[in-house]
Amino acid sequence: MDSYENLLLQLQNGILTITINREDKLNALNRDTVKEIKLAIQQVYDDPAIKAVVITGAGSKAFVAGADIAEISELSDVNARSFAEQGQEVFTMIERCNKPVIAAVNGFALGGGCELAMACHMRVASNNARFGQPEVNLGLIPGYGGTQRLTQLIGKSKAMELLMTGEMITAQEAHDFGLVNYVTTPPELYPRCVDLLEKIMTKAPLAVGLVIDCVNAVYTKDENGYQTEANSFARCCSSEDFLEGTSAFLEKRKPAFTGR
Ligand code: COA
């Protein structure tokens, strides 16, 4: 694995855990950290030994408390657009990754932290987590996809409210709004993510990747999601795993999927 300054990476039983590791700054995302996340996600795309991903934050207080405000304060209209576009590109890589990615939200997920969690395919939160898009307090708006993904995940009315008030919500409220899949105690957080991923890892990897594509297609304006689904369905039917899955069912045994 490459060496990282702001991330910890650990691969165990096919699950890569990416920990944002700037605990003294509540894991705020500076430019270098965003670049490193891009490298790490590229590794996920490229390395067949990585089957699934958990993204979390170091320490017990924060997942990620936002983009680094010290860096943001230096932005001008000249470089701000590329700042936003570069972050958006990395978060879209996460969203489009064909291996499942879960955010283990262990504390504050604010601004870019909430946006990072929303780019993941699912979110599990510990009961001390807090979510919010507080950018309006800084004279800003989200720049890493937050206005789009929050609206997709919780609907227009609540997204408008959270984005305009900048208020934080609890993990339980985030669950009630559909932002979070499960709420756990802090010690149960990581094991719950691993349980979910291990369940998914027993399924056909190609089919799982195509599910991700098809669900993402709902939110991609230039794509006909039904067509994407039909094409993906056909792709599954020409795979070895389809043969294996259907044969195993008929032979009353567990399938042994290979991803082909
Ligand atoms: N960018 C840069 N540094 C940050 C940060 C951010 N987004 N969030 C926290 N930090 C730093 C603080 O400056 C502080 O550093 P210092 O010890 O060198 O002064 C350290 O992390 C601890 O934060 P602190 O504010 O002292 O903790 P707290 O418990 O009092 O408050 C928060 C926690 C999350 C409520 C508060 O840190 C906060 O509001 N952060 C900014 C959230 C935000 O607006 N995010 C969106 C950015 S676009």
Descriptive overview:
The chain is of the alpha/beta class and about 260 residues long. It has two domains: about 5-200, 2-enoyl-CoA Hydratase, Chain A, domain 1; about 205-250. Helix content is about 50%, strand content about 15%. It contains eleven helices and ten strands. It has a six-stranded mixed β-sheet with strand order 1-2-3-5-7-10, sandwiched between helices. α1 runs parallel beside α3 (about 75-95), α4 (about 110-120) crosses α5 (about 145-155) and α9 runs antiparallel to α10 (about 225-235). The longest helix is centred in the first third of the chain and has 20 residues, at about 75-95. The model has no long low-confidence stretch (mean pLDDT about 95). Bound molecules: coenzyme A.
Features:
alpha/beta, 11 helices, binds coenzyme A, six-stranded mixed beta sheet, globular, 260 residues, 2-enoyl-CoA Hydratase, Chain A, domain 1, 2 domains
Which architecture of the largest domain does the CATH hierarchy give at level 2?
Alpha-Beta Complex
Number of domains: 2
Strand order of the largest sheet: 1-2-3-5-7-10
Write the element-wise H/E pattern from the N-terminal end onward: EEHEEHHEEHEEHHEHEHHHH
- Largest sheet, if any? 6 strands, mixed
SS content category: alpha/beta
Q: What is the number of strand segments? A: 10
β-strand percent reads 15-25%
Query: What is the global morphology?
Result: globular
Terminal CA distance reads 25 Å
The average pLDDT is: 97
- The number of helical runs is 11
* CATH topology descriptor of the largest domain: 2-enoyl-CoA Hydratase, Chain A, domain 1
So, the CATH homologous superfamily of the largest domain? 2-enoyl-CoA Hydratase, Chain A, domain 1
Give the cofactors and ligands. Answer: coenzyme A
The parts where pLDDT drops under 50 for at least 5 residues are none
Proportion in helices:
40-55%
Using the coordinates above, name the CATH class of the largest domain. Alpha Beta
Q: Output the radius of gyration.
A: 19 Å
